[in-house]
Hints:
With about 140 residues, the protein is an alpha+beta fold. It has one domain (about 20-139): Thrombin, subunit H, CATH 2.40.10. It has one helix spanning about 115-139, and strands at about 20-30, 45-50, 55-60, 70-75, 85-95, 105-110. The protein has a 6-stranded antiparallel barrel with strand order 1-2-3-6-5-4. A hairpin with a 5-residue loop joins strand 2 and strand 3. It is globular, with a radius of gyration of 18 Å. The protein starts with about 20 loop residues before the first strand and ends with a helix.
Amino acid sequence: MKLTLKAASWAEKRSSERIDLDCPAEVRVRRPFHFLLKRAYRAYTPSVMAKPSFGGMQLHVSDGVELGDRLDIRLHLKQVGYRRNCKVRGQVCWVQPELRRGGKLIGVYLLEQSPERESWKRFLTEKLRYQHAQLSAAR
């Protein structure tokens, strides 16, 4: 029997391009902290959004977020030059420890029923156009 080695391959599974951008955010886990208080969710905690795409984003969080949690996310887009802030909802699809900053780095899939999903898409479209224009001008 003859064995042949093949080159390792890695394929990007995202359906949309990522943007190189960091933005302040606040995150709240959408699970009640007491079973009798169905509407009393945990408070918002500060975090940082990194590398957003149309379908999701990475977040640096301090702690208290687990795989599968649903999140309310407030994005402070005015601080990165957009005309308004944005609120979206997402679900945690992966979690890994963040060794340099402490806390966790999480991957969030954005849910379709996000209150300001269209505003989020407009923001990313503008940023992608700007990013592509810079790349074209550099050539």
